[in-house]
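Researcher: Please translate sequence to structure tokens.
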Amino acid sequence: MIKNKEKILYYITDHGRGHATRSIAIIRELQKYNVEIIVRNSNLGSTMKKSLPKIKIISGITDVGPIIQNNGISINYQKSKKIIHNWIENLEFYAEKESRLIDKINPQIIISDISVMPILAAKKSNKISIAISNFSWYDALKFLSSKDLMRLKKIYQFAEFAIKLNYGTSMNHFNKIFESGLICRKPTKNKNEIRKLLGIKNSEKIILFAIGKSKEEITFLTDTNTKIISTGSMIDKKIPHLKINNWIEGQNLVSVADVVICKCGYGMISECLTTGTPFYYIADNNHLEQKNMSMEIQKLGYKNRIKFEDISKMKINKPFFQSQIKFKKHSIETKKIVQKILELI
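Model: Translation complete:
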């Protein structure tokens, strides 16, 4: 236990579910120690408050990520390049403003997943900063100009070290790297409780669609004993399904599903692997985080990458579920991560 209560200022990029969900897992573990955690994020505050009711969340822009196309997977390079370039051009302004907030809060450590802005602000305030992620923007945004990329690289090197989660890019531009396994939230309820909340019988099979905010309609063949759940994916209106957009503990849905069909994002992939839930994923090789995650999944011997159009060929019935190959649950290494953070206090 930490003797003197210290503050940790935790920045979560305003882009992507995986950043928030793994940060929640880390913060829940940090709460077991004598530390005060303050979160900075602009777009997930209300959601995070429901998961972390005792945590102080200060709203404010922390990052700018790529713009995703209507399929919910691929990057719109033209729009992304412009908006991210403008963000990088104004980093000094945002970091200077953030530095004043840091001075007021006076945290012991600043954690970033995975924006450069708080790392630059920490440098200005003479505070220790660390990065946590399975990728960095320097690795993932190779469509930016060389000038913008070098700016990102230089700022990342101000961090004391990076905690590199597996299933991602190399991140070898940081001065020091500590490697870790998967970080994600654990289910908060057992399967019977979750099924009861959803109104789904134990005898019924569940397939979960989580393909981001895709605006492409999904259609397939299914039987009456299958319950379809969507967390934002557009399912053919003729197919009965349960649409859930605001389910706070999404890992509970993953744990109760018999099969998940998702995009190749860290949040869903890590939750499938750690709950042992069979899954199919869609990835875009031009999206470098997705490409690297897909390569790591394939190294494990899984043959579960599909294309969007493959879904329409699926017959989701009893033989489909019987054909799914079970795999050993992967371990969660949140405690290891937290111990590394606490070494700095």
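Researcher: Any highlights?
Model: DSSP finds 13 helices and 14 strands in the chain.
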